[in-house]
Amino acid sequence: MIRNGGNPAGPISRRPCCRVSGNDNREVPDGIVFPAGFSGGSSTRSFLTGHRCGMFLWLMTAMLLGSTLLPAQEATRWRGIHGNGVYDETGLLKSWPEEGPRLLWSYEELGAGFSSPVVVNNTLYISGAEESTGYVYALTNDGKLMWKSAYGPEFTESYPGSRSTPVVMGELLYQFSGMGVVTCMEAATGKVKWTKDVVKSYGGRVLQWGYTETFVAEGSRLYVTVGGPDHSLIALDRFTGDLVWTVKAGGDLSAYCTPLLVKIPGRTLLVTHLESHIIGVDASSGKLLWTHPHPNQWSVHSNTPIYHDGAVFCFSGYGQGGVKLKLSADGSAITPEWVSKQMDNRIGGAVLVNGTIYGSGDFSRCWLAVDWKTGEVKYEYKGLANGTVIYADGMLYGYTDRGDLFMARADPSEFAIASRTRITKGSAQHWAHLVIDKGRLLVRRGNALLAYQIR
Questions:
Q1: What DSSP line would sit under 293-332, residue for residue?
Q2: If you classify domain 101-110+345-455 with CATH, what class do you get?
Q3: CB atoms near residue 347 (< 10 Å)
Q4: Residue 69 and residue 159: Cα distance in Å, rounded?
């Protein structure tokens, strides 16, 4: 058991990844690993060993990609561009071949982990852990390793491996370790720019299953749920790691949740779960606006809330279920509208499509549809294990914790499976959330990332 940020793995042992060819034995920055065969050559020696090392690595990365790597204009988000599991892609298959969708490629050297990939300018970023060290991996669009960069000790206790999905914004990338360390890297090279240990700096505590949040970033700020007596949620300057503001919300610990960013007239709001409360915070000032009690058996609230039409739906497992909270016009107050005990998903999320919430239950052990306005359960389906869910082009895409990958119509009148297959590659649990990108379904299981053709 890890208590108060204790680290069983000890300090990271970084190893050199490549050397300049010739007689110069100086190394590229620590922790960055390139594929076998990469060589700078004598003509590049001065670049690698001088102050222009970062620019050279940027150029080499671009050449490996075959195109120039451009910065993202907005931060990537957990569960897709909208942060809610709904993808905008169209023209997708409505059924798969009997053997499942065509496997385009697989990369099976990720190490242990449960994070999902993000895709920026044809580069896929994903995290994993090799023994006790966490890495961010950068892959080409066809699943080839460009580089991997160590971000420090990773969680090694119950269900070891990386938890958080990388966040890319502009030229920078942000990764959260299960041990509570924020790492900022160059997105093009993996070179570490700064780190911040929220356990040491702000009194956070490593939970039973580690920190699992994927950051929310906007403008110049990076939002981090610390948890604890003095710092519930903080905003950091994403360029320097300096503290911008902190909010104290009753001393609750963090609760594995990625916050929701809600933009309403006159205010941007952060909504997230803590140990036993849902909180709303003004993202600009850090002012705590409201709290709502929402405990469960193990203080696990992994699901990002869902926002629609002036209300948020917050839900978690172990029988707790979900509650719809109506926001006041300025977001400074809430009014509970309804509660659904059946929608008690533990870690798989849910999607809102045309007025219906789709997801799976924990104690209820079924897939279900819930009316957004009233909370009425439209159907329950018990033919599959529970799991993660996303949506695109009229269809639900689910990945159960027993390894079933399926596609079903988003229809509140019935749960109709259109196609179903099994994920057999990879290692450990089937818990990672699915991603759709350019007609591909990206599935992570432990050390493997799989790309399926679904268009």
A1: E---TT----SPPEEETTEEEEEETTTTEEEEEEEPTTSS
A2: mainly beta
A3: 22
A4: 35
pLDDT tens string 297-324: 999 999 999 999 999 999 999 999 999 9
Each residue's pLDDT tens digit, 347-369: 999 999 999 999 999 998 999 99
Within 13 Å, how many C-alpha atoms sit on residue 263's CB side? 3
- Domain borders along the chain are 101-110+345-455
- Strand pairing report for 350-353 and 334-340: unpaired
pLDDT higher than threshold 90 for residue 63 = no
The DSSP code for 435 is E
C-alpha distances (whole Å) from 224 to each of 197, 247, 270 are: 11, 11, 11
8 Å CB contact between 403 and 444: no
Band (pLDDT 50/70/90 cuts) for residue 43 is very low
As given in the structure block, the two tokens for residue 137 are: 């991996």
Which pLDDT band, with edges at 50, 70 and 90, does 255 fall under? very high
Structure tokens at 452: 């399926």
Burial tier of 340 (Cβ tally within 10 Å: 0-12, 13-18, 19+): buried
As given in the structure block, the two tokens for residue 301 are 């609230």
Q: In terms of Cα–Cα distance, which of 119, 140, 137 is closest to 128?
A: 137
Q: Look up residue 135 and give its two tokens.
A: 């890495």
- Residue 62's H or E segment, with its range, is helix 53-65
Where residue 55 falls among pLDDT bands split at 50, 70, 90? very low
Using an 8 Å Cβ cutoff, are 72 and 121 in contact?
Answer: yes
Beta carbons of 214 and 176 less than 8 angstroms apart: yes
> Locate tokens 């042992």: which residue?
13
Cβ atoms 346, 362 nearer than 8 A: yes
* 3-class state of residue 361 by DSSP: coil
**Spatial separation of the C-alpha atoms in residues 403 and 407, rounded to whole Å:** 13
Coil, helix or strand for 42? helix
Per-residue pLDDT reduced to its tens digit, 172-203: 999 999 999 999 999 999 999 999 999 999 99
pLDDT of residue 45: 36
Give the CA radius of gyration of the chain. Answer: 22
Interatomic CA distance for residues 195 and 176, integer angstroms: 10
Predicted local distance difference test score (pLDDT) of residue 325: 98
CA 109/CA 111 separation, integer angstroms: 6
Return the pLDDT at 58: 41
